[in-house]
Every structure is written in C-alpha cells, then in structure tokens.
Amino acid sequence: MRDEQVEELALRAAGGDGPALDQLLGTIRPQVLRRCARFLPCYQDAEEATQDVLLQVARNIGRFEGRSKFSTWLHVIIANCARQTYRSLKRRAAEQAHALPPVDVPDPRTTSVIAGSRLDLLDALELLESERPELVAPMVLRDICQLDYAEIAGHLGLPEGTVKSRIHHARTRVRETLLA
C-alpha cells in the first residue's frame, strides 16, 4: 500500500471509521514490527512492542489531526513503545534475578555484537532521558526512525536549528556513555 493510501486510511480512522482503523492496523503491522526490531534485540520482544504500538494507535487515533504525516506520528509511538518495552523487560529481569536462584543465562552483550549494541544504546538513551529528557526524542526520531530534520521539527513543534542542536548534544552524550 502506498504512503498516500496509508495517510488517507489514518485520516478516515481518526474520523471514527472503524473498518479503516482495522485496515490501517493490518497494513502498518509489518512496518511496525521491523521498526521495533531495530530497537530490541529479540524478535519476541519486538513482537511485544509491536502489539503495544498497535494498541496505542487504536486507542489514540482520534488524536491524530493530520497536521504532520501519519508516519511521523507512528514513529514517535514506535520509539516510545519499544523503549518502554525495554524498560519493562529490564525491570522484570531484575525482579526475577532477586526472586529465583541464579540461572546461567548468556548476556546478549557478549553473545551478539548487534544485540549487545542495541542494549547498550537503550541503556544510554535511558540514562540520557534521566538527565536531559528533551534530547532523547529528536535523536531517536533522526537516528533510529530516520526522519528528516523538518519532519522532526514539525512534530516536536521546535525550530529546525533547535532540533539539530539537540541531536548533536544527544549524540555527544550517548557517545560518552557508550565509550565509558
């Protein structure tokens, strides 16, 4: 399905068209799964995040006003849900570590360069969010979702120069964290 058709479906769904929402969710699911898999190292985790994204889209489609592209709105939801899934998995793992006897589970950081890099990046983003939350969204939208600066500026309601500056500062902080 072409981007224009997806945008039209999104506008119809936002207007309360139930069949359009069903079709929209079915259409975007593969793309959402691919995007979530860019964040999360395990396919099952990406599937969990995908379900959260689709649920958020279904619940909040009425808030989509069409001022920005639907794909931009969707990327923000994907980034937020994938990061929330990671935080939830991390919290569950910590709780299980205290509740159960130790089990020798391989650390993805040592068994897979790609998985380890993703986890390190998510940890760095979590640290950045606790220190400078305003820097996270622009960097995620640019470097992970691959939106252009104008789209990011429009979605966040910021001047393009501010977006570029925040991305630069975010990259610097994340680089420092990753190299530490």
TrEMBL record:
<keyword id="KW-0804">Transcription</keyword>
<dbReference type="InterPro" id="IPR013324">
    <property type="entry name" value="RNA_pol_sigma_r3/r4-like"/>
</dbReference>
<dbReference type="InterPro" id="IPR014284">
    <property type="entry name" value="RNA_pol_sigma-70_dom"/>
</dbReference>
<dbReference type="InterPro" id="IPR013249">
    <property type="entry name" value="RNA_pol_sigma70_r4_t2"/>
</dbReference>
<dbReference type="GO" id="GO:0006352">
    <property type="term" value="P:DNA-templated transcription initiation"/>
</dbReference>
<keyword id="KW-0731">Sigma factor</keyword>
<feature type="domain" description="RNA polymerase sigma factor 70 region 4 type 2">
    <location>
        <begin position="139"/>
        <end position="173"/>
    </location>
</feature>
<comment type="similarity">
    <text>Belongs to the sigma-70 factor family. ECF subfamily.</text>
</comment>
<feature type="domain" description="RNA polymerase sigma-70 region 2">
    <location>
        <begin position="28"/>
        <end position="92"/>
    </location>
</feature>
<keyword id="KW-0805">Transcription regulation</keyword>
<dbReference type="InterPro" id="IPR007627">
    <property type="entry name" value="RNA_pol_sigma70_r2"/>
</dbReference>
<protein>
    <submittedName>
        <fullName>RNA polymerase sigma-70 factor (ECF subfamily)</fullName>
    </submittedName>
</protein>
<dbReference type="InterPro" id="IPR039425">
    <property type="entry name" value="RNA_pol_sigma-70-like"/>
</dbReference>
<dbReference type="Pfam" id="PF04542">
    <property type="entry name" value="Sigma70_r2"/>
</dbReference>
<dbReference type="InterPro" id="IPR013325">
    <property type="entry name" value="RNA_pol_sigma_r2"/>
</dbReference>
<dbReference type="Pfam" id="PF08281">
    <property type="entry name" value="Sigma70_r4_2"/>
</dbReference>
<dbReference type="GO" id="GO:0003677">
    <property type="term" value="F:DNA binding"/>
</dbReference>
<dbReference type="InterPro" id="IPR036388">
    <property type="entry name" value="WH-like_DNA-bd_sf"/>
</dbReference>
<dbReference type="GO" id="GO:0016987">
    <property type="term" value="F:sigma factor activity"/>
</dbReference>
